[in-house]
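#lab-general

N.A. 3:47 PM
ok so I finally got the sequence cleaned up, no stray characters, all 270 residues accounted for. can someone with queue access submit it? mine expired

B.Y. 3:52 PM
send it over

N.A. 3:53 PM
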Amino acid sequence: MSRTEEAALSTPASAHDSADGIAARARGLTKAYGSGETTVLALDAVDVEIARGRFTAVMGPSGSGKSTLMHCLAGLDNVSAGQVWLGDTEITGLRERELTRLRRDRIGFMFQSFNLIPTLNAAENITLPMDIAGQKPDEKWLDQVIDTLGLRDRLRHRPAQLSGGQQQRVACARALASRPELIFADEPTGNLDSRAGLEVLGFLRDAVDQLGQTVVMVTHDPGAAAHSDLVLFLGDGRIVDEMARPTAEAVLERMKRFDVIRGAADSEED
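B.Y. 4:20 PM
back already:
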C-alpha cells in the first residue's frame, strides 16, 4: 500500500487527547527484526497517543505490527528507533530492572492464554503480582473490581474449577487489582466462545466507564473492536486509519477496503 493510497483512506489524524491527558505515546516508533537484506520492518516511524480513561482497539491484518506496537508501548520489547512514554516517563532507554519495576507498578496485562497459576485459587491469582512485589492491595478498590467483574462467589475456586470466561475475568481482575495507569489486552477473547467473549468485553468496557481505567486491546475481531471508543488500523507497520465510536459493521467494511487496496498494490508489483 502506497502512502498516497493510505492518505486516501485515512481520516484526519487527531491527538486523541482527553481532559485527563495522555496515558502513553510514541514518536517515530520503529521496530526492525534482522539485519541487511533479511531485515523485517515491523513498525515504521509510528506516531501515536493513547488517551487516558478511554478504550482503544488496535486492528490490522496478520503481520501489520499490531502486537509489536503493543509490546513496545508496554516496554515488553525494545525499539529500534523513536521514543515511547508512559505518562510523563520516557521508557525507551530504561534498564531492564527499571522496566520490570515500571511494568509491575504501572501496567496491567491480559493475554488470551489467561496465564493463571493452577495451584492458586482465584483470589490468590488476582493478588499474585502484588504479593510478589510485597505490596498490600487497596481493599476498597479490590472489592470494587471483584464486584464489577462478578467474581465474589468464585474467589475460592481454582482455575480448573472455572469456565474459560470466568478464568479470563480473573485475569482481568488481576490486571486491574493494582489500579495500573494502563491495561494492555492482547486478543483477550481469542480462547473464548462468543458468549464468554462478549462477557469479558463488557467487563473491559465497564473497567473504563465505571472504574476509570485506560485499556488498549489488540484484536482481529470487528465485534470486539466495536466495544472500544477508538479503533486504530495498522498496515505494513504504520497507522493508516482510525475510527471513533466504531460499530462492528463499519469496522468490517473498513477492513475490506484495506484488503481491496492491498490486493491492487500486490497486483501492480507482480
